[in-house]
Amino acid sequence: MTPAGERPIRFEDRSQQQVHHTTCYMCACRCGIKVTTEERPGEPGQPCKTHVRFIQGNPNHVVNQGVLCAKGSAGIMKQYSKAKLQHPMIRRPGSERGDGVYDPISWDDALDLLSKRLAHIRATDPKKLAFFTGRDQMQALTGLWAQQFGTPNWAAHGGFCSVNMAAAGLYSIGYSFWEFGAPDWDRAKYFVLWGVAEDHSSNPIKIGLDKLKTRGAKFVSVNPVRTGYSAIADEWVPIRPGTDGLLALAIVHELLANEWIDHDYLVRYTNAPWLVIDAPGTAQDGLFLRDDEGKPLVWDQQSQATKRMEKGVAPALHWSGSVPLSLEGRGARGEGDGASTTDDDATSPLSPNPSPTRGEGSQRVRTVFSLILNRYSSTDYAADTVAAQCGVPAEQIRRLAREMAHVAFNETIELPCRWTDIYGNVHDKVVGRPVAFYAMRGISAHANGFQTCRALHLIQMLLGALDSPGNFRSKAPFPRPIPPAQLPENDPGIINAPDTALSKTPLGFPTRPEELALDASGNPLRLDKAYSWEAPLASHGMMHAVIKNAVEGDPYPIDTLILFMANMAWNSAMNTAGTQEMLRARDEAGNHKIPFLVVADAFDSETVRFADLVLPDTTYLERYDAISFLDRPISEPDAAADSIRHPVLPLDRDVRPWQDVLVELATRLKFPAFVKADGARKFAGYTDFIVNYERAPGIGFLAGFRGKDGEKSFRGEPNPQQWQAYIGAQSFFAHHWPDNQRWMRGVNRDYLQAAADAAFIPKAEPIIAQLYSEPLQKFRLAGQGLYPGRQPTREVDKQRLAQYFDPLPVWYETSALPAHETGAAPDYPLHAITQRPMMMYHSWDSQNAWLRQIVAQNYLYVNTATAASLGLADLDWVWVESPHGRIRCQMKTMEGVEANTVWTWNAIGKMSEAWGLERDASEATVGFLLNHLIAESIRAESGERLSNSDPITGQAAWYDLRVRIRKAEESGVWPKLEFGR
Question: Which of 432, 589, 614, 941 could pair with 470 in a Cys bridge, judged by C-beta atoms 3.0 to 4.6 Å apart?
Fold first, then answer.
């Protein structure tokens, strides 16, 4: 009974509600979610409609353990967004790209039009199709589609996001920062976060930081900006942007000077004892000494001879000398053939010391560790030398190194665990050095990011702080061979062959110049110039270079560009206004220089307005998705896991999942993997494809519930009920590693066999961490004119290879790279960077009504003292100028930013009327992008224009932007871009 005078308590009527388990798509975390839907009455005479009532975290999920962020909860508002596309559209004849004037077109007509165009390209010159995707989370499918079409011109967003992180790890330790590894949050005692914005891996990092803080572990943040995660750090290191690598190598200097290193780990599990040939001026200089089977050799202290590293061998860690020249001393499998020679007293590029005189019939060699000592013991890397450049006091640098070493060696973790290493040694425990690192885009988005990331991995290897309790651990299907055994397609005959699938994937990991994607004249085979001399290790492609190269016809013109969920006309452009002009550009005959632009997206982005054909996608709550081991699964260190999405809402408009569209196009175009021998359809659609496609016998897109009865994992026959099995298991599959396979996985015999059985790696062979990279040395030899095979012909390429492809981690100023078209660093004294707020992700969320209530305008943040020195105060309007342009914006001051740095939130500023926003929305009237100030190109001293990217990986160098600021009038924003100019 309700007491008199009190209102009765009313509980929500849940009789029409259902709970569905699926996977979030509001960022890259791929968290497990519970979506509660509700049937509500429709309009009079209409049936009930299904609505999302609320979204919660799934407490049983391996990734987020029930935690959900603001983005995930606000997924509801994706469904209510005014920006949702409603039907296919074609640009109205006579209208211009960017006007956003379209006519509806039926799906049948749209697919007929596109199929006919693609069939002609495939039958004549397949590389004239360029297909590039954003954060699609299904790159295994889109990559297969491109490979089957026969075009090398495919990649996803990694080239302008984090290829430096991925490539540096995969060429060093077999896994990497980003999504291929994670800190051991449960055991780490000292955690260093390098350059991570607060949106990345949002829920796992928040869960992890809570564990660290609860246990009293120390949390150090190295970042120019103190927001988000960094705001709760025990110590903030406000580093000058782009100098993280120099700081890391100064820490290396301290570790070596005090012998704070794990000798046993280095000897057993890294290439520190491998012998490096010291033969200046020859083709073998800097390569590993190998036996006649190509196996690297060490100096065995017991036999006083070169041996393979195996059980019973006692390698010398710090050794140099001469070894007899025999078959096993002639370089890797005859790679020294055709080598030139110089005088014996020539200086090796590996060391400042002259090479000792070789006796007749002998070869001078040094261990990798000797080279490391020679280089990093130099005062060039001493804390007192680098402090001013990094903006980090020398004593702080020394203390950070001392603290890492103390935790690694005085607070070591030992867990009882019986495991067997690659040499057959059985261990009764696993030893952990509990110092954990994590790094992201603040490191990668610089032209020196690849080598900087390698420097971080060098610290980890010296401490022995990898893949064991308390440090940075791998996530399946990693670790992989170093580098992974996958090469990019580089056969001109196949790439230019009509109606022919590529023999290899478009992307891969070259190990020598012959594996670059070049024609016989040395010209790039790919439109973006990935795997050319300009960016030899561009493992994720160079999406940011595609539009510019296509418009310039460099290296060749294309016919059709397909963009999926990639906002290349706005915040993914290195220069927004310039990119929009390029999309409109016409030749002398009046034809667009990119003849046909297809955009697939669920929402009305800035890029959609430039399309010739718009193919509308579904939202993540309306479709099936496979988050696959063939791509980027949801694994955590202790569990190999993948997941799915499935429709929890019916479609209410004329849209189709892009996955289904790709399968339909592949079938119409008769791709070999999608049709039977007689040309008949092999798959009914995407869901049928995911169940029945096999990359190899028993290996498909989903690893769980395989076999006809659904009881097999990783490898097994297709299961017709696989989707239903995943849905019944809350939309994910997880295999928890047994204790003997949880640690030291690159050198753990039982794990390596399990990984080979699951097809994560080709063979159960050891994965030895590489402090010194022989592939980089081969490219450097090519730049020096010493490599016996393919070499560059342009001087600019020779210089870049010789300077930047150092086999040991090296730091260089990004200002040492060729300058922008105009201006020099002293004229632009401030570093300008961006990051994303915790409640936003790329362009996706600046349209989200709930999230817009948190942030709908971005400011330029300036250090308080720096602002005062310039006569600036909170909410002043300022001009921000770079050598490339200028913008007007409003500024705020803060203490938590490095004195030489200004920054803002990325992708808050929008183009007027995009994303369903009102014309006078704050995002379009006072919001802004720093992209307007960034140049796509840099100019070499010799005049060549090169991509504004890391010279090794092609990573877009967003954060190398330099600016100056001055006070402006208090109204207006420039540039203000609108559709239909």
Answer: 432
- CA 521 to chain CA mean position, Å: 31
φ, ψ at 686 (rounded to 5°): -60, -45
- pLDDT score at 339: 30
Q: What is the pTM of this model?
A: 0.94
* Helices 394-410 and 449-463: angle between axes, nearest 10 degrees: 40
Coil vs helix vs strand at 273: coil
**What HEC string does 382-400 produce?**
CHHHHHHHHCCCHHHHHHH
Q: Are 476 and 640 in contact (CB under 8 A)?
A: yes
Provide DSSP, 19-75: EEEEE--SSSS--EEEEEEEEE--STTS--EEEEEEEEE-TT-TTTTT---HHHHTT
Q: Give 297's DSSP letter.
A: E
Q: Which of 682, 628, 625 is nearest to 659 (CA)?
A: 625
Residue that the structure tokens 């975290």 belong to: 57
Smallest CA-to-CA distance from 470 within 212, 176, 178 is with: 212
Longest Cα separation, the chain: 109
Is the per-residue pLDDT at 923 higher than 90? yes
> What gap in Å lies between CA 756 and CA 470, rounded to an integer?
26
List of residues 6+ apart from 415 with CB closer than 8 A? 429, 430, 432, 469, 743
Beta bridge partners of residue 596, listed in sequence order: 560
3-state secondary structure (DSSP) of residue 955: coil
Annotate 800-812 with DSSP letters as a single string: HHHHH--SS----
Q: What is the DSSP letter of 598?
A: E
- 3-state SS, 423-461, equals CCCEEEEEEECCEEEEECHHHHCCCCHHHHHHHHHHHHH
pLDDT in tens, 141-176: 999 999 999 999 999 988 888 899 999 999 999 999
pLDDT averaged over every residue in the chain = 92
Give the confidence band of 971 by pLDDT, cuts at 50, 70, 90.
Answer: low
Q: Looking at the DSSP assignment, which residues form a beta bridge with residue 925? A: none
- Give per-residue pLDDT as tens, 347-369: 333 333 333 334 458 999 999 99
DSSP state of 765: -
Tens digit of each residue's pLDDT (9 = 90 or more) over 838-885: 888 877 788 899 999 999 999 999 999 999 999 999 999 999 999 888
Measure the CA–CA gap between 600 and 586, rounded to whole angstroms.
Answer: 23
What is the four-CA torsion angle of 244, 458, 217, 745, rounded to 10 degrees? 140
- By the 10 Å C-beta count (0-12 exposed, 13-18 middle, 19+ buried), 39 is classed as middle
Q: Are 382 and 253 in contact (CB under 8 A)?
A: yes
Query: DSSP characters for 127-165?
Result: GGEEEEESS-S-HHHHHHHHHHHT-S-EE-GGGGTTHHH
Q: Which two tokens stand for residue 676?
A: 């039977």
Q: State how far the alpha carbon of 133 is from the alpha carbons of 153, 512, 540, in Å.
A: 11, 28, 11
The total number of residues written for the chain in this structure: 981
Residue with tokens 């893949």: 467
Helices (H), 693-741: 722-728
Name the amino acid, one letter, at 30. Answer: R
What are the counts of helices (DSSP H) followed by strands (DSSP E) for the chain?
25, 34
Here the tokens at position 61 are: 């999920």
Alpha-carbon distance of 321 to 298, in angstroms, equals: 12
Three-state DSSP at 217 gives: coil
E strand or H helix at 265: helix 263-269
CA 263 to CA 258: how far, in whole Å? Answer: 13
pLDDT in tens, 380-398: 999 999 999 999 999 999 9
Between strands 560-564 and 596-601, the pairing is: parallel
CA atoms within 13 A on the CB side of 242: 23
Grouping H, G, I as helix, E, B as strand and the rest as coil, residue 960 is helix
